[in-house]
């Protein structure tokens, strides 16, 4: 039990009504509020949490944090008014769990693409280097070998502090986590102390949430602006916005790049189906990952390890043994020498990178067949662009559903199709059912030896349609389609 007063030591309080209370837990979802919990009313994108105050009172929760004091308050309620409930929740959660980030080497990565790949590689690399590690990612959270399912790329501030505390208690010294732009804006990482921050890249995505590209850039930059002078900040100099990220940071600045002058430099010696041969700061290394985008990911993690004091030679040795993250450029061989690649490309930039990589590594007899959809209730502007990219780089392609969520899947396909010329439509197949689309690509469109890219869902094991998550796994469907081949 903690007193409200002790929790709010570092939180600016506008008004405090009622008596001093002790709280046993924190919560921001009325459905979880109970006697002894401190409820934070948050104005969200769907509803205003303040509307649930009568409900939490009914459930016995009588200590509230609000931005607006309700007109009528029961006399046995303690109500703390703050300017920003999200910020107050983040600060209180850090206090409640004893600021675990202060005892960890916590490194965060932000950017449109490459976060999951890079944190997963960092987690594996640092384990190989002998450290006890935690991982916080889109695919899964992990404490050493133990998997804790992930619901978001970056957890809400309360779950995040609880997870970091668990990692600290289990003896982790290093934690690698993804920092999404949503997390920065919603203050999920407020009050978290980072040892280091990495920027991968920024291209079009999430304009449904941020509205403008400038606001999206500002969100990512906010992560670097909040670092302390004890932290390091590592940026990709080859990205147009790479240096902008570090403009106002107090952290020690480092850069990496393949094209421009940087603290950490790499050159691609070769890029093929067997992996990448790289020159990193004058040393040659072979990596199992494929594609120029992975050269960036590998260079970013090498740089991070060296900045964190690891032996550069040992890091290079371990780099060679690292495998791709789940659902990221995962290759699957099938009958008739057909090959499928499952990849989480769900942005125009990712899709273009993956398709260019496949073009670069295929032999001249292999056709490229792409299966692609776009998520519902997400940035609609990327839909025509992604369809056009599939058309540009593929010999044939299937437009299908990703996670339609609450949208009509046919309308999503209409918006994708709008990005195609008449000529491109000749190569198009429109099959709204994803399983049927994958089967059609593997059975009807692909000839022996061809490559089938199944993009957008990567590691996901569900498909969300009208708010219901059905079991769906691209890899499983591909295996079935391969099995059914002669
Ligand atoms: C757009 C967005 O980011 N939404 C997140 C946000 O929800 P919200 O603002 O919409 O909340 P809301 O539903 O309006 O509710 C407002 C408040 O009322 C409360 N409430 C709501 C209903 C109720 O019955 N009782 C109640 O108390 C809620 O708990 C909340 O405190 O805060 C919630 C709690 O932390 C998150 O679960 C939710 O993630 C939604 C599910 C989501 O899909 N988010 C995605 C877009 C996301 O965050 N993605 C990024 C990765 C993006 C990327 O880089 O690819 C991520 O980090 O995962
Ligand atoms: N450094 C990179 N630059 C550009 N594209 C990349 C890079 N790394 C991976 N990709 C592509 O982007 C896709 C998503 O990669 P990854 O899951 O690592 O990114 P993410 O930033 O974690 O995405 P999310 O925001 O959805 O969590 C990959 O499947 C691949 O197609
Ligand atoms: N983190 C991303 C994942 C998108 C994955 C794609 N399969 C989709 O559903 O759009 C998001 O929530 O926007
Ligand atoms: Mg991710």
Rg measurement, Å = 24 Å
CATH fold descriptor of the largest domain: UDP-N-acetylmuramoyl-L-alanine:D-glutamate ligase
Give the domain tally: 3
Which structural class matches the secondary elements? alpha/beta
Q: What's the CATH class label of the largest domain? A: Alpha Beta
Report the biggest beta sheet as strand number plus sense, adding barrel if it closes: 11 strands, mixed
Widest sheet: strand ordering: 11-10-9-12-8-13-14-15-16-17-18
- The global form is globular
CATH architecture tag of the largest domain: 3-Layer(aba) Sandwich
Number of helices: 17
Ions, cofactors and other ligands present here are: ligand UAG, adenosine-5'-triphosphate, 2,6-diaminopimelic acid, magnesium ion
Annotation, overall tally of beta strands: 26
Helical fraction equals: 25-40%
CATH superfamily of the largest domain: Mur-like, catalytic domain
Which regions have little confidence, pLDDT < 50, spanning 5+ residues? none
The share of residues in extended strands comes to 15-25%
C-alpha termini separation: 65 Å
Quote the average pLDDT. Answer: 96
Q: Notable features of this structure?
A:
Protein-Tyrosine Phosphatase, Chain A; ATP binding; binds magnesium ion; eleven-stranded mixed beta sheet; cell cycle; UDP-N-acetylmuramoyl-L-alanine:D-glutamate ligase; six-stranded mixed beta sheet; globular; Udp-n-acetylmuramoylalanyl-d-glutamate--2,6- Diaminopimelate Ligase, Chain: A, domain 1; alpha/beta; binds adenosine-5'-triphosphate; 26 strands; peptidoglycan synthesis; cell division; binds ligand UAG; 486 residues; binds 2,6-diaminopimelic acid
